[in-house]
Amino acid sequence: MRDLRVDLFSGDVIIFAPDRSSRPTDIKKIEDEKEYHNIYEENCPFCRGNEKYSAKATFQLKDDSGWICRSVYNKYPIIDEYSIGISGTHEVIIDTYRHNGSFYNMSKSEFKNMFLMYQNRYKEYIENKDILYVSIFKNFLKKAGASLEHPHSQIISMSLVPKDIKNEVSILKQYYENKKESLYDKVIKEEITLDERVIYNGNKFLVIVPYASMYSNEVRIICKDKSKFENLSVSSLNELSYIFKKVFEKIYIECGYMPFNLCMHSHPKDLDGEKLFHLHFHIIPRKYNFGGFEVSNGIYVSSTMPQDFAKKIKFN
C-alpha cells in the first residue's frame, strides 16, 4: 500500500512504497568503502604528530598522551570573512586523534570530548554580533561528501540564516498562530504516547525515526525543551554522548559501515519565531540516491516504513 506523508517541520512530501525495495536490478553494486585499521597514518594532516600538515589550531583537548580532539581552520573554506554577500569562518573539528576512529567505534568519552569541542567552537562564533547562524555538520565517507579519511566534523559561522532554518521557523510560527500551541511540544508528546517510532526517550532528548523524511532511515535527535546548544549542561552532553554511541552501534548492526551526514540544526539569531525552535540533530544515511521522479517533482520516495526501522535500532 502506498502512503503519502508530509514532514511537518519542512513541508517535504514523501511517498512510502515498501515493495520497491524488492525491485529486480542488473546494475552492479557499488563497492562499499572499507573500514580503516591504523590508528596513525604517516601522511594524514589530522593525525596526532602530523600537525605541520594542517592549518592553525583554534582549540584542543588534551590528556597525558597529547591532544585527543582538536579544531583547525579549514584550508579550503566554503566562506571566509572576505566572501561577497556572506561572511563567516570555516573550521574542521578533528573528532578523535585516532585515524581509525569513527562514529561506529568511538567510545562514550570520545563522543563527550567531541561535543565539548563542538560547544566550545559554537560559543566562540555565536557570541559574535555579526553572526546569525552557526552550522555544525559531518560528512562520513566519500558517498556522503568526505574528502579525507580521518574522522572529522565541520563548523561554519554565517552572517545569514540558511533558507531551511528560516523555512522551519516560519512553519513553527504559522502553526503556533493557527493552533495556539507549539508544534515541537505536540509532536514530542504524540511520539512518546504512540511509541511506534521512538528509539530512545531520555531526560533531555527524544530519538525517533521521523514520521516522514526525504531520506530513508533518517534518525532525529530532538531536545525536549528549548535549550540552546551553547547552554547545554555537562549532564546533557553526557546523555547526548550515550545516545550517539548507542544509535551508531545499532545502525552498524543493521546497515553496516554506512556513509552518512550529520546535521545539527541550532537556534538562529534575530529571527521572529525562534523561541518556538528546538535544537535537533539529523542523522542522514547516504546509501540511496534520488532518482528522476524526486529530482523533477520534489516528491521523495521511501521503501522503508519508519516504524520498522525504529524497532530494529531501539535501545534504553
From TrEMBL:
It comes from the Bacteria. Residues 106-313 form the DUF4921 domain. The keyword Protein biosynthesis does not apply. The keyword Transferase applies. It is an enzyme of class 2 (transferase). Its EC number is 2.7.7.12. SUPFAM superfamilies: HIT-like. Gene3D superfamilies: HIT-like (3.30.428.10). It holds the Pfam family DUF4921. Keywords: Nucleotidyltransferase, Transferase. One of its GO terms (molecular function) is UDP-glucose:hexose-1-phosphate uridylyltransferase activity. This is UDPglucose--hexose-1-phosphate uridylyltransferase.
